Amino acid sequence: MWLENWDELSPAEKFNARFDDWTSPPGAQFASPAIARAYTERVRLFRDAIQLNKPTRVPLHFFSGFYAIRYAGLTVEEAMYDYEKLGAAMKQFNADFMPDALASAMTAGPAKAFELLDLKLYRWPRHGVPPTAPFQYVEAEYMRADEYDLLLADPTNYFLRYYLPRIFGNLAPWQKLAALTDLTEWPLMGSALVALGNPEVQAAFEKLLAAGCAALEWMKACGAINSAIVNALGLVPLTSGFSKAPFDTLGDTLRGTRPIMVDKFHQPQKIIAACERLTPLAVEMAVRAANGARKPIVLIPLHKGADGFMSEKDFKTFYWTSLKQTILGIVAEGVVPMMFVEGGYNSRLDIIADPDIPKGTTLWMFDKTDLKAVKKRFGGWACFGGNVPVSLLATGTPKQVEEYVRRLIDEVAPDGGFILSTGAVVDDARPENLRAMIETGRAYGVYQ
């Protein structure tokens, strides 16, 4: 870390150090002192809200998805493969709408890298969906029902030799690799290295290296776009990266929705053990992202814990226990987990409003959950936001949006600890409605 005595700091001291660093980002070259002040003021809005104080006004955010691309008249395909067009679109969108949180250029993803690896996990333009469509997940049993013990024994070995060869067509030869843990002594090392001489394995590594170069090109391009917007407008890059709830890593990515639900009945202890095994990896992923980007907030989308996916008992047993430990591990390092609570969590609120999680250290963005009920349980404990329906932004009128935002602020924002945001990703919205949301929040969300 950037402080020599980092390991000696308390969680609160780490939290403050991260936010201080975020307030004065290294290398920033703001267009003017006024822009620099605007940036600092926006960071303060989010910091005050997260720490349950009253900022000068309600912070403004939305999950922009691919909306900025469509707003600029581009296709998703153009944004994925032409970084110059992507940059123009993102600069135009952020300047026209001016949320407090930057709409990032990185949403489109490194399609060129995925193409080189022959990614099977998603479809995207040029690979299974039309040029105007966003990427789509392809769910399958990428981890077999009888492979829990392999995952538990060594997750890295499992991903390297089983999972990655299944989701990347051009890494299929990696199934021939020996476990890296074989490389221990002279008599063992030779045979462990033999697979690396296989022409198919070598070709797979060459594809991986090429994909790495493509990903670096994407990262540099998107980083330059985001930096230019931040320096010109003083908008705040809100999150540093991602992590996942351990159960969602299993259910979304490895086993799939139906298989993981069947596993609850056939091998429940394996699920519990796997979630425990994945928890420290989820914590490390979040902290590594925060350290690398030098921003304190990490996004954790919550999927399969929503109302209707499982009973309250199963939620406590399979989903919440490991997610809670993940949150606690992240918070202990002064990082703020931002839970994107997709779907409804109305039946989960008494569980997730857990007093073991220190107050003022987490951020919860809700989709379809009743925010008045959230306010009763989260008030004085955790910052929350979201709930502006994307359906309203797509089909309503500016007047309806204004009325909704004013009512939402009246009901849940008076005491602070609230961020105005959408309930889900805004891929489709009328520009006048999105503008009404932002302008109403900016004018009506002022604290006296």
Give an overview in words.
The structure is a single chain. With 448 residues, the chain is of the alpha/beta class. It has 19 helices and eight strands. It has helices spanning 11-23, 33-50, 67-71, 76-81, 83-97, 111-117, 148-153, 155-167, 186-193, 199-233, 246-254, 257-266, 268-293, 312-332, 349-352, 371-378, 390-395, 398-412, 431-444; strands at 122-125, 128-129, 136-137, 297-302, 336-341, 363-366, 383-388, 418-422. It has a five-stranded parallel sheet. A three-stranded mixed sheet has the order 2-1-3. Strand 5, helix 15 (349-352) and strand 6 (363-366) form a beta-alpha-beta unit. The protein is globular and about 75 Å long. The model has no long low-confidence stretch (mean pLDDT 96).
Features:
single chain; 448 residues; alpha/beta; 5-stranded parallel β-sheet; 53% helix; globular
- The gross shape turns out to be globular
Oligomer: single chain
Q: Roughly what is the average pLDDT, rounded to an integer?
A: 96
Task: Report the major sheet.
Answer: 5 strands, parallel
The strand line-up of the biggest sheet is 4-5-6-7-8
- Structural class of the helices, strands and pairings? alpha/beta
Rg from C-alpha positions? 23 Å
Total helices: the number is: 19
What ranges have pLDDT less than 50 throughout 5 or more consecutive residues?
none
Estimate percent helicity: 40-55%
The secondary-structure element order is: HHHHHHEEEHHHHHHHEHEHEHEHHEH
Q: Could you give the distance between the termini?
A: 39 Å
Strand content: 5-15%
Q: Please tally the β strands and state the result.
A: 8
